[in-house]
User: Fold Ferredoxin from Aporhodopirellula rubra.
Amino acid sequence: MPKLTVENVGTFDVPAGKRLVQALTQDAGTDQLHACGGVSRCTTCRVEFIEGEPEKMTEAEKETLRVREVTEPGVRLSCQIACDHDMSVRLISRLEGSGRKDQGGAVADEIQPAPQWTTK
Assistant:
């Protein structure tokens, strides 16, 4: 089982292949946002990688980050990442202080849209 470390929250064993956004909300119990329901249409599920940033990304993530002009190093969309190795992240998009009524809609177990993999 991969280990997910969330800065200032703790370290958690996560089932291999689980979407990072789900691991953050279900396993780590955080208030990570995911307003579009985990389909790479917004950037509310952003996290910053401290260690273990994946080498690959989906075409959908790459395009969303480009369109939304997200250029900070290590900042990725948690809805487009599968937990397949140990990683350490910093939450940067949380319900607390966002003014939103909830974290977002239900997120499918599989990465949506169907992933087409590329490099960063």
